[in-house]
Amino acid sequence: MKLQRTTWILVCFALILGGGVYFSERQGSTPTETATSQQQRLFNFTEAQVQKVIVEREDDTLEFERSEDETQSWQMTEPEEVPASEPAIAFLLNFLIEREAERRFTAERDRLPEYGLDDPFATVTVTVTDSEDEQTLVLGQPNFDENFLYARRNPPKTDEAEVEVFLVPYEIRYAVEREYDEWKLAGDEPETQETEAPADEPETQETETPADEIEAEDTETTEATEDTETPEDDE
Fold it and tell me: Is the four-CA dihedral 133, 135, 141, 145 of positive or negative sign?
């Protein structure tokens, strides 16, 4: 009986202690989770504030500016000046504004090559209203399971000993690495090709065929003249 009484006392003490730890951690963790949720958002600007977008890739650099034309919101300015594909721009901005980073961590600068951030495959720079500073997202290589990309947000110009690294959704790679023609408004180039092709072919056919017919007619006329002259010589 004495052993059972001691056992019950220990069990009750463990329950009381465990309950106190549980409520203490629950109350203390709530503010931390909220702060983390706010920190996971990459940027705080809205799509309407974006005035310029620059996408630097390994092989080219694309620049887009918001247009004052109500029917065409975006214009490509580099490497050529053509209307831009609004869905392509909106898809990219959605990742920058709406999507959140999975997590962030601090790493030593000399470890940047491990994340592909010393030589990134793409850098997106955004100019927004009411801000003198450009917003930049540097994209590195995928993580081990290829569900996320390592990234840096607004990296400082000075070389610091430690850097902040984010894990962003892998799908942002599709928004950046789309084919060049997909960045332009669809339907511009095909119209030009359709108007050029038919213009040359009819001219070639019209100049060759009549020339042969005229030569044939001249031959027939010469033969007819010789036939009419032969009787006169016989007379």
Answer: positive
Q: Which residue ranges make up each domain of the chain? A: 50-178
Could you identify the residue written with the tokens 């006329």? 221
- pLDDT tens for 103-147 read 899 999 999 999 999 999 999 999 998 777 899 999 999 999 989
Judge residue 13's burial from the number of C-beta atoms within 10 Å of its C-beta, 0-12 exposed, 13-18 middle, 19 or more buried: exposed
Q: pTM score > 0.85 for this model?
A: no
Which residues have CB under 8 Å from 157's CB, separation 6+?
A: none
Divide the 235 residues of the chain into consecutive groups of 10 and give the mean pLDDT of each group: 58 56 39 41 88 94 91 92 94 91 91 94 93 90 93 88 93 94 77 48 49 51 46 44
